[in-house]
Design brief:
eight-stranded antiparallel barrel, alpha+beta, seven-stranded antiparallel β-sheet
Length: 461
C-alpha cells in the first residue's frame, strides 16, 4: 500500500500531526506512530518520538496486543464460511474436555462465553508462555465465572481456545495458519509473531517522574491468539482496508460486515457509553459516528485500530509504553478530523441498468395502520422500507427469486416480505411477518387483521 501524503489537504495533515503530537507529549510516550486510511488507501503517516534525529516510519514494528484477536476471529470466520463449523456449535464438538464446552463458537468470539478475563497463575503478559503449556493451564479448574451467553465479559483465555480450535480443524499451528491464510494474501509482510527488525523496544514510564524502565518481551505460548502479534502502521493500514471492504482471498465483504455487527448483550454501562462487541471487533458510537476496530496493550506497548465505516476512514495508532496516551481516543479523533475536514464525496448517481416492473409495483408510500412508510428500490437490487418521518423500524430486503423478499437487518432481519397480488396482477397489500401494509391507512379493500369499521373515517360529530 502506497502512502500518498498529497491525498490530504495541508490543513488536514497539520491537524493530524497536532493530534498525535499532543498525545505523545501529554501521554509521555517514548514514541507514537499513526496512519490514516481513506477509500482503501493509506493517505497519511505520522510519528513523534523522544529520540532526536530518529523518526519511526510505517515499517517499524510495535507489539499490537489484543488487536491480534481480530486476526484470530477472521481465521474462525473462514472456517465457518468453508462449512467446517457453525457459529452456533458448542465448543465441545471440536475441542473437548475444556470445562467450557457448552459455550458456542459465536459466544467465544463475542466474549459472552462466561470465561474468566485472565489466565490463572502469574501475570501471563509478563511471564513465559512455557508456564502454560496446555489449555488446562490457561483455563484453570473452573473456567466459567458467569452463565454462558448471558453477559459480555472480556476473556483472553477465550481467544486462546479459539486459537486451539483453528489448530484442531486446520491441523497446523495457529501461527502457520495465520501466515498462510491472512498475512501472505493481504501482503502483511511486516506482521509476525515475534519481533523482526526494525522494531521498537517496550518501555514503562514512571507515573510520577520522567523516567523509563524496559519491559520484558515474553513469548505468550498458548495465549498467542489473544495478543502475540507485532505489526506496523503500514501493515495495519492494509488490514484496516480489508476489514472495511473484505477481500475474497481471505474473507468476503458479507462476513466482514457480520464481524462488525453487535453480537454481545449490552450491560447498562455499555448502553450509556455507547459501546458493544461484535465477532472479534469492538463497536462504539462516538460523537454520532459508528466506529469499529480493536485496542490492544501488552507491557511496553499500546495499539489501536479504528474504522469509521460510513466515512470510509480508518486510523492506526501505536506507542511503545505500558500506559499513558489513550490511543482509542486518538484513533477516533484522527478519523473525525479527516471525515469532518474532507467529507467523503459520494459516487455519482446513476439510474438502474434494468427496471423490473414487479419491483416498481412495490415502491412508493405504504401504511402500517396509520404509520406512513416509503419503499424504495436501491441500485444494488434491494428494496428499502423506512418510516417517512421520525424514527422507527427500517430495513433493506433481498429478493428470493420467487416474488418474496427477506429482511436483512433490524427488527425485520430474516422476516419474509410477501407482496399479495389481486387476480389482475396488481399489488393489493404487503404481508411482512404477518403485518399488513396497505396503500391507504387501513384500506378497507385489503384484508386488515381485525377488519376495518364499515362506516370509515369520521370526525367528532
Amino acid at each position: 500500500m502506497t502512502t500518498t501524503q498529497e491525498a490530504l489537504l495541508p490543513g488536514t495533515r497539520r491537524a493530524l500531526l497536532h493530534r498525535i503530537a499532543v498525545a505523545q507529549a501529554e501521554g509521555r510516550a517514548p514514541s507514537l506512530v499513526a496512519a490514516v486510511v481513506r477509500d482503501g488507501q493509506a493517505v497519511w503517516h505520522g510519528a513523534r518520538t523522544s529520540v532526536d534525529g530518529h523518526g519511526p516510519d510505517e515499517t517499524v514494528q510495535y507489539r499490537i496486543g489484543s488487536v491480534t484477536k481480530i486476526f484470530t476471529a477472521v481465521l474462525v470466520m473462514r472456517l465457518r464460511d468453508e462449512g467446517l463449523l457453525d457459529l452456533g456449535d458448542p465448543l465441545e464438538r471440536y475441542v473437548p474436555d475444556t470445562g467450557a464446552g457448552e459455550a458456542t463458537i459465536a459466544e467465544l468470539l463475542a466474549h459472552t462465553a462466561g470465561l474468566a478475563a485472565e489466565s490463572p497463575g502469574p501475570w501471563w503478559e509478563r511471564t513465559p508462555g512455557s508456564l502454560r503449556p496446555e489449555l488446562s493451564d490457561v483455563l484453570g479448574e473452573q473456567p466459567l465465572l458467569h452463565p454462558v451467553g448471558r453477559h459480555h465479559h472480556y476473556s483472553n483465555p477465550g481467544y486462546t481456545v479459539l486459537g486451539a480450535l483453528v489448530e484442531r480443524l486446520r491441523g497446523a499451528p495457529w501461527e502457520e495458519v495465520l501466515r498462510d491464510e491472512i498475512l501472505e494474501p493481504l501482503g502483511l509482510h511486516r506482521t509476525s509473531a515475534r519481533p523482526e527488525p526494525p522494531h521498537a523496544g517496550g518501555w514503562a514510564v514512571h507515573p510520577w517522574a520522567d523516567a523509563m524502565l524496559p519491559e520484558p518481551t515474553e513469548d505468550l505460548g498458548r495465549m498467542a491468539p489473544a495478543g502475540q502479534l507485532w505489526s506496523t502502521t503500514g501493515d495495519l493500514a492494509r488490514f484496516a482496508a480489508f476489514l472495511a471492504r473484505g477481500d475474497d482471498r481471505v474473507l468476503s465483504a458479507h462476513s466482514v460486515r457480520e464481524m462488525r455487527t453487535p453480537a454481545a448483550p449490552a450491560e447498562t454501562a455499555d448502553v450509556v457509553d455507547g459501546v458493544t462487541y461484535g465477532l472479534g471487533m469492538q463497536i462504539q458510537l462516538r460523537d454520532g459516528r459508528l466506529l469499529v476496530g480493536h485496542s490492544g496493550s501488552l507491557p511496553g506497548f499500546l495499539a489501536n485500530l479504528t474504522i469509521g465505516v460510513e466515512d470510509d476512514v480508518a486510523a492506526v495508532v501505536l506507542a511503545n509504553c505500558t500506559s499513558g496516551p489513550l490511543l482509542g481516543a486518538v484513533g477516533a479523533d484522527l478519523v473525525r478530523i479527516v471525515a469532518e475536514a474532507e467529507p467523503r464525496i459520494p459516487e455519482p448517481w446513476r439510474p438502474l441498468r434494468e427496471v423490473d416492473p414487479a419491483v416498481l409495483d412495490l415502491v412508493g408510500q405504504w401504511y402500517w395502520g396509520t404509520h406512513a412508510f416509503g419503499m424504495r428500490a436501491t441500485a444494488d437490487g434491494l428494496v428499502a422500507l423506512a418510516p417517512l418521518a421520525g424514527g422507527g423500524r427500517r430495513a433493506r430486503f433481498r429478493a428470493n427469486g420467487d416474488g418474496t423478499w427477506t429482511g436483512l437487518e433490524g427488527y425485520y432481519a430474516g422476516e419474509l416480505l410477501r407482496p399479495v397480488r389481486r387476480p389482475d396482477g396488481s399489488v393489493s397489500h404487503l404481508d411482512l411477518g404477518s403485518f399488513v401494509f396497505t396503500r391507504q391507512p387501513y384500506d378497507p379493500g385489503a384484508p386488515v387483521p381485525g377488519g376495518v369499521d364499515p362506516e370509515g373515517w369520521r370526525g367528532i360529530g
